[in-house]
Structures are given as C-alpha cells and as structure tokens.
C-alpha cells in the first residue's frame, strides 16, 4: 500500500511539473521597451518605437513551433528551449521572466512581452486629434525642405505600424511651385506636382508610375505642416529642415 501511495504521489508531482513547464505556450503581446537595458533615455524615441511595436505578437504553438505577427504579416519558425530561455531560429532569445512576463532580445533591442492578446493605446506628441479640418494656405509657404517628425496611422488599419515606420523616412523638398524632390529613406527623386486649391489635394506626378501619390495638405505654418496620405489615411506631421 505504501508503495502504491508513493507511486501516485510521484505521478501527480510529475504531471504537475510537466503542466507548469508548458504554461508558456500560447499568445504573447508586446507590452513595452525594457528601459533597464538602455544606456540613455530619450522619451521621444521611446514613444515612437513603442508605437511601432504595438502590433508585435508572438504565439508559441507547441514545444517546437512559434509564429511572429508584425505589420500584418505572420511568419512561422522553430525554436528550442533551454531552461527559461527560448532560442528562436532567427538568433533571437525569448526569456520567460515569470508566468506572465517575458523579454525578447533581438540584437540591441530588449522588448517586454505579456501573456495574452492585447494592445496598448498609442501616444502622440503632435498628432493628438483623430481628424483635422483643412486650413487654407498659400503655395509659396510650402517652399523649402520638410522632414517627418511624427506619423499617425488610421485607427484599426491593418499594417498601421508599417505605415508609421515608412512614413518616418519621408522628406519633401519643394524646389519651386511646380517641382519637388521626394525623399524616402534618403533616396530622392525629383517630380512635378500639382495642388488643387479647392480640395488642397497634392499630387506628385510621375509619368511611368502606375498610380500617382496623393496627399491632402491639412495645415501649413512657418514651423510645421500636417499632410494626410489619401489612400492610407495616414497623417504626417512635418517640420522644416
């Protein structure tokens, strides 16, 4: 009898340990950047990067396979587990800190995840409204170089994080009232543009393009300009260089 009781206790203990070791399986959502790993704190950069990472999710499907969700794309890969660390096949690490918290180490980045399916509210310094009314302007006020300071994707748009990331790479250099140098990630192309002053729509004209890029110029001042990409409904807050 004593032998049977010991065997049952061992079995219950073994099942409990096995169950606990699989508690990490499931969906994890990005929560925040790990500030303890930062050499210096730049609140503006932290806010921008945190907004972009809000859509990252990691779903551990079983003891070998996981899926990474980011910018509307899902990639499935494999991992191995060593203690509390999941070694992802891309060379990243997913470290289980406790039952509901984990840290992803990817290059120099340190991202904190929480167990479950959720997304924190994004915060903005300049584009604090959901919608902006058009304000009239003069075309000569556009002349000069502009760079993006902040991007706000429309609420609920799939891939909004991607739009915000790409938007931060855009520059406008209005050379004349007919010609503009459009920059994306440091590469510039000179194009003609037109503005419909009734609708304040800005169209970059590129003869060989399948579809011309169209923006609405919402507001223009001496220091800043707000434009909206008409197809993506993304707002760009730009400042003079």
Write the layout of secondary structure elements.
Blueprint (H helix, E strand, L loop, with lengths): L1 H20 L4 E8 L9 H11 L3 E4 L4 E6 L2 E10 L2 E4 L4 E4 L4 E6 L2 E7 L28 E9 L7 H8 L2 E5 L4 E6 L2 E10 L4 E5 L8 E7 L3 E6 L4 E7 L1
Antiparallel strand pairs: 1-2, 1-8, 2-3, 3-4, 4-5, 5-6, 6-7, 7-8, 9-10, 9-16, 10-11, 11-12, 12-13, 13-14, 14-15, 15-16
Tell me briefly what this model is.
The chain has 241 residues and is of the alpha+beta class. Helix content is 16%, strand content 43%.
Structure, described:
The chain has an eight-stranded antiparallel barrel with strand order 1-2-3-4-5-6-7-8. The chain has helices at 2-21, 43-53, 160-167; strands at 26-33, 57-60, 65-70, 73-82, 85-88, 93-96, 101-106, 109-115, 144-152, 170-174, 179-184, 187-196, 201-205, 214-220, 224-229, 234-240. It is 16% helix and 43% strand. The chain has three helices and 16 strands. The chain is elongated and about 65 Å long. Residues 1-20 have low confidence and may be disordered. The protein is of the alpha+beta class.
Core attributes:
single chain; alpha+beta; eight-stranded antiparallel barrel; 16% helix; elongated
What best-fitting shape do the alpha-carbon axes yield?
Answer: elongated
What composes the largest sheet? 8 strands, antiparallel, barrel
Q: Strand arrangement, largest sheet?
A: 1-2-3-4-5-6-7-8
| Arithmetic mean of pLDDT | 86
- Gyration radius, to the nearest Å? 25 Å
Q: Total helix count?
A: 3
């Amino acid at each position: 009898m004593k032998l049977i009781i010991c065997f049952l206790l061992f079995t219950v203990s073994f099942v409990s340990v096995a169950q606990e070791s699989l508690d990490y399986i499931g969906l994890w959502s990005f929560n925040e950047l790990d500030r303890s790993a930062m050499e210096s704190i730049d609140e503006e950069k932290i806010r921008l990067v945190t907004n972009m990472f809000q859509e990252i999710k990691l779903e551990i499907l079983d003891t070998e396979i996981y899926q990474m969700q980011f910018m509307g794309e899902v990639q499935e890969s494999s991992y191995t587990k060593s203690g509390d660390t999941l070694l992802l096949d891309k060379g990243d690490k997913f470290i289980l800190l406790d039952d509901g918290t984990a840290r992803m180490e990817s290059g120099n980045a340190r991202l904190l995840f929480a167990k479950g399916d959720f997304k924190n509210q994004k915060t903005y310094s300049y584009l604090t409204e959901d919608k902006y009314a058009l304000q009239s302007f003069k075309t000569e006020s556009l002349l000069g170089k502009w760079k993006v300071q902040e991007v706000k994707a429309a609420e609920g748009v799939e891939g909004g994080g991607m739009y915000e990331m790409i938007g931060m790479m855009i520059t406008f250099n209005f050379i004349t009232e007919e010609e503009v140098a459009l920059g994306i990630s440091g590469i510039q192309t000179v194009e003609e543009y037109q503005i419909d002053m009734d609708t304040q729509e800005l169209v970059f004209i590129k003869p060989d393009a399948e579809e011309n890029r169209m923006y609405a110029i919402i507001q223009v001042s001496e220091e800043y300009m707000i434009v909206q990409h008409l197809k993506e409904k993304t707002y760009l807050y730009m400042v003079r260089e």
